[in-house]
Fold:
Amino acid sequence: MRAFVITLDALVAVAFLFIVTIVLYTQTFSPNTMQSIYLKHYSLDFITVMEKTGKLDLTIANNSTAMHQILEQTSERICMQVTITNSDEIDLATISKTNCGEYGTEIQVAAVPHAYDNEIYMITAKSWYKKT
Structure:
């Protein structure tokens, strides 16, 4: 009986140690979720601004200058690339912010459907933090 109690005590201690290790591991290596959420909302807000100002329709109609100008006015520390794809999955335009280089470690993608001239287009905005 005494050996059984000692074995049970050791199993409880090992289980406790295992649980503590898992909790510490998940706390240490969790991603920075606030920055991810900010990037996602930034991308969605950019698409909304483009829709509300009519610049998105201009870009679909082969005038990407307006979108490029607004893209360059976004925050200096955030890079962005916007792609417009038609219903046949053909990319009509891809506009990138200048001086951004490679993707950073944190990247978010937002995609929103948009109707123009009786056709549905997919607007995809990728955003990431500029490497310093």
User: Anything to note?
Assistant: Residues 20 and 26 are 10 Å apart (CA to CA). The chain has two domains: 1-30, 33-129. The longest helix spans residues 2-28. Residues 33-129 form a domain with the Ribosomal protein S3 C-terminal domain fold (CATH 3.30.1140).
